[in-house]
Design goal:
- By secondary structure, this protein is an alpha+beta fold.
- The chain has two domains: 117-357, Transferase(Phosphotransferase), domain 1 (Orthogonal Bundle); 364-620.
- The protein contains 20 helices and twelve strands.
- The chain has helices at 5-12, 78-83, 117-125, 134-147, 157-162, 167-187, 239-245, 258-274, 288-301, 319-326, 338-348, 351-357, 364-368, 372-405, 411-446, 457-496, 503-542, 549-582, 588-620, 636-641, and strands at 20-22, 37-38, 41-49, 53-60, 65-73, 93-99, 104-109, 190-191, 200-202, 208-210, 217-218, 231-233.
- The strands form four sheets. Strands 2-3-4-5-7-6 form a six-stranded antiparallel sheet. Strands 1-12 form a two-stranded antiparallel ribbon. A two-stranded antiparallel ribbon has the order 8-11.
- A hairpin with a 4-residue loop joins strand 4 (53-60) and strand 5 (65-73).
- Helix 16 packs antiparallel against helix 17 and helix 18 runs antiparallel to helix 19.
């Protein structure tokens, strides 16, 4: 292909870094000029001209509307491809007309007047980094509108919010929408294969729309094949697409999938962030084949993890890691789909969720991920141990002493022996079960990189365990306290032989005191464990997965459960205190301890509940939007910021 270098350079008037390749011969498009008429269209302004076609702003006479008219030779499957796509961030095609006598195709589409991202890139390169923000995007849009004699919209909440956004957030915002558009196309079995700034149009409000599917491939079209009109912009191609273009490699166009478009989009986002592409430009001086081979070697070598000096200092945490992953030479190391890329870019726009997913290295969340089993054990043991001490004190003073006074002198010795036996069994059993409950979480966090294989049943199960472990530990505690409430009077009855005429009162008193202590003790482990789990462990095992509707439902269930536990933390101590007063206890210390302990416990529970609710809100903002990615990826961030 070396003899084609001159022709390619002449066609585009640019170096290889912006070359569009065409590996089949195409018919020349008839020379058309603005001010003339073709078929039903008055050609008003030439919007652009490339290797494949000329695009005009035209007036359709029959419909009296402005359209973007693409005039090309009658080949390719672009109209049929675009007809499959209905997405707010893909340029909508109205229809086509064929002029067989001239060998032309007229494809008339939605007119998008705000220019292209290529113009944004050019403006970006001449703008100091500290001056880059959302206003830059809107300035490019307004200049494009002015060139076509149009005015920007007078009232636009979207433009207002874009004007106040940081530039890295604008890039992520654009990326979310373009990735969602690609995902929609991929779900229709359509690959774009030429994602670049010049093929992204901007509306009056700054919304991006993906265009130019001229070299795309749809497996659903009869007679269509990837090899037909295969090409693309070399500067944005991944390794596998370059190899498919090169005669020196055996890779076929059929081997490409949506991850090639993911790579190209990542190159474009990198360029928007820094003003330059991640791979050095290559010239045509050494010939076409040599240039393509050099680019292949660049892709194989990959990109250094050391970020360039032009990387924005205020870029969201994790964005660099995401783009480097997208630019991996091996498609298997990239995000598995454009939908995953959209979701992870959306995460970059959620600072609260980002704080959970990517905690600072020296933060308590990072430390908590190292010792989940110990944390769960401590949160379970300490509150239950404190309540066990209080319960022992109360039962000894209010029940055992009554038995001694009623003529059962062995009651004290029997009670002390039972305390050691029952507490020993209960705590040993509880520690074992709690460790067993927490162990899968520890394992999942430890092996988290290896779990990045999709939304499998096992990974969903681990996420559920993270959200439910606080409740499970609380239920375990209540069950053990309930069993102890039955075991104490029954064992004393067997050991003593008889407990007097009011033995049933002893049974009820033991049962009530232990069950109430168990209900009080259940709240604090729930709040302590749930706080750490939601803030540290759940994000650790969920960060590489697409959180779906089921995850959102689990988060919502935990939200409701948190309020129930908070109600219990407030109500149970008050009920126990009221009960003690009604039965006329004279144990002032017990009343004081229960009052102060209940108040302190509720205050701690209330504080933790507020923190948990905040974390749940942050996680819910990125969960449950899987279906929306196909129809515009209208996430909670969109609705909150651009309603």
């Amino acid at each position: 292909f070396a003899n084609q270098a001159t022709e390619v350079g002449r066609l585009l008037g640019a170096g290889l870094h912006q070359t569009t390749t065409v590996l089949v011969q195409r018919r020349q498009v008839d020379s058309l000029e603005a001010g003339t008429q073709v078929d039903d269209f008055d050609l008003l302004v030439l919007l652009g001209k490339g290797a494949f076609a000329s695009v005009f702003l035209a007036r359709q006479r029959s419909m009296q509307r402005l359209v973007a008219l693409k005039v090309s030779s009658n080949r390719g499957d672009e109209p049929q491809t675009l007809a499959q796509l209905d997405h707010p961030h893909i340029v909508r095609v109205h229809d086509q007309r064929l002029l067989p006598e001239r060998g032309l195709r007229l494809l008339y589409m939605q007119y998008v007047p705000g220019g292209t991202l290529q113009q944004v890139v050019e403006r970006l390169r001449s703008t100091a980094p500290h001056q880059r923000n959302g206003k830059l995007l809107l300035q490019v849009v307004d200049e494009a509108l002015a060139r076509h004699g149009e005015e920007p919209p007078a009232e636009s909440s979207l433009r207002d919010r874009l004007s106040r956004m940081r530039w890295p957030d604008v890039v992520c915002w654009l990326g979310v929408r373009l990735a969602a558009a690609l995902d929609h196309a991929h779900r229709k079995s359509v690959l774009h294969r030429d994602v670049k700034p010049a093929n992204v149009l901007l509306t009056m409000e700054g919304q991006p729309k993906l265009a130019d599917f001229n070299i795309s491939f749809s497996s659903k079209l009869e007679g269509s094949s990837p090899a037909a009109y295969f090409g693309g912009s070399l500067a944005y191609m991944p390794l596998e697409q370059l190899e498919a273009c090169s005669p020196h490699h055996d890779r076929s166009p059929e081997s490409l999938d949506g991850r090639a478009d993911v790579f190209a989009l990542a190159v474009m986002l990198w360029e928007l962030l820094t003003g330059s592409r991640p791979f050095p430009d290559v010239s045509l001086a050494g010939g076409w084949n040599a240039a393509v081979e050099e680019m292949i070697e660049q892709r194989r070598a990959g990109i250094s993890a050391t970020l360039p000096a032009t990387w924005p200092a205020d870029a969201p945490a994790g964005l660099d890691r995401l783009l480097l992953e997208c630019l991996s030479p091996d498609p298997d190391d990239r995000p598995g789909s454009a939908a995953e890329l959209a979701r992870r870019l959306e995460l970059c726009l959620q600072p609260e969720a980002q704080r959970l997913i990517h905690p600072a290295p020296n933060s308590w969340r990072t430390a908590a991920r190292q010792i989940p089993v110990l944390i769960v054990l401590a949160a379970a043991i300490v509150p239950n141990a404190l309540l066990a001490v209080f319960n022992h004190y109360y039962n000894e003073r209010e029940i055992v002493r009554e038995l001694i006074a009623s003529g059962i002198p062995t009651a004290q010795a029997v009670f002390q022996a039972l305390v050691l036996a029952i507490n020993g069994i209960a705590f040993a059993t509880g520690i074992g079960i709690v460790a067993w409950l927490a162990w899968p979480i520890a394992q999942a966090i430890r092996t988290q990189p290896a779990l990045d294989s999709g939304d499998s049943r096992s990974t969903r199960w681990v996420r559920q365990r993270c959200l439910r472990i606080g409740h499970l530990v609380g239920l375990l505690g209540v069950c053990e306290w309930l069993l102890a409430g039955i075991a104490y009077p029954a064992a004393m009855h067997l050991a003593i032989g008889a407990m007097g005429e009011r033995g049933w009162e002893v049974y009820l008193h033991f049962l009530a005191s232990l069950v109430l202590c168990g209900l009080i003790a259940a709240a604090l482990p729930f709040f302590l464990i749930t706080r750490v789990s939601v803030s540290a462990w759940y994000p650790a095992v969920a960060r590489c997965f697409e959180l779906g509707e089921r995850d959102r439902q689990e988060l919502e269930h935990l939200r409701r459960l948190t309020w129930l536990y908070l109600l219990a933390a407030a109500g149970v101590p008050m009920f126990a205190l009221t009960l003690l007063v009604l039965i006329g206890t004279g144990n002032r210390l017990a009343l004081l301890l229960l009052s102060l302990g209940g108040l302190a416990g509720f205050a701690l529970a209330f504080w933790l509940a507020r923190l948990i609710q905040g974390d749940l809100d942050a996680l819910a903002s990125i969960a449950g939007n899987g279906n929306n990615a196909r129809d515009g990826f209208a996430t909670s961030w969109d609705s909150r910021s651009f309603a």
